[in-house]
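WARN  no MSA supplied for this record, continuing single-sequence
INFO  ligand: adenine
INFO  echoing inputs
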Amino acid sequence: MRDLETFIAGLPKAELHLHIEGSLEPELMFELARRNNVALPFGSVDEVRAAYAFSNLQDFLDIYYQGAAVLLTQQDFHDLAMAYFRRAAADGVRHAEIFFDPQTHTARGVPFAVVADGLLSAMAEAEADLGVTSKLILCFLRHLSEDEALATLDEATPYLDRLCGVGLDSSEIGHPPAKFARVFAAARERGLRLVCHAGEEGPPAYVWEALDVLAVDRIDHGNRSLEDEALVRRLVDLGMTLTVCPLSNLKLCVVNDLSAHPLKRMLDLGLTVTINSDDPAYFGGYVGENWLQTARALSLTEADLLTLARNSFTGSFLSPDEAAPHLAAIDALAAK
Ligand code: ADE
Ligand code: ZN
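INFO  complex generated
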């Protein structure tokens, strides 16, 4: 294998599982708190980082929603997204499909348009200045009701032409995908693509529901699918892309050690897996670090890494024509 770090950095990659609010670095959190006169429950950046010790998803979500309280203006959302795009570009990310949680912001009185306009202006700037293309996915918070999700979809109506899809995130256990059957059907009718967090902490039954009830185009995480052989067969037959997030899984205690991460097993079973960062400011690394640490911990081969890079584009919502140049660049690297 060529030098691993250089090889990974040079591989064209798409990131398909990134919560933009989860890219809020403590330094920017403090800067925005000052700019917006928002009180933070932390005295310093070091204190914030010290608080990032989680024993499960809910531990993390509590602190993540608290951090998002500093985001108030269109400029805040623009700055947040640009900071992410700069880091992603440095890691060889050529395309990103980013999640945002509008309900986290509208509940605090921040209008949907402020959030969406700030993110969309950063996406345009990232394409022009960094050559990174992107798409925007609106996530519903699954701990809230389906009626609240339907109201959020209505609020998004003026932006439907600039949204790529909808997703489902937040506390998984106790909030199965089927709870959101109507809003996902409504989103599909409006031409949106569908994704859903499933099988991160929740059981294989939630992955089945995401497939059979919501009819999703992609599964976010999906780790616990491995507990159900018939489900693995179904995912392989569908060619369903799973957006796996190794450092997130480690930080949220979905796995005890990266060397025990199921990603290599998933690849060997023929599942279409990708490597993503989830909430990089909270989990200790952006996409490049996720690739590098996972490759080392699981002794991934060059062929594995090439497959992961290809999967990130074939599993994206780019059209085949848009994905083709990226796939050709990966093939050219493979042939070297
Ligand atoms: N929101 C942000 N990150 C999340 C994750 N990993 N799972 C569920 N909801 C989230
Ligand atoms: Zn996630």
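The beta strands are 13-19, 93-100, 133-141, 165-169, 193-198, 218-221, 241-244, 272-275.
INFO  checksum written, moving to next record
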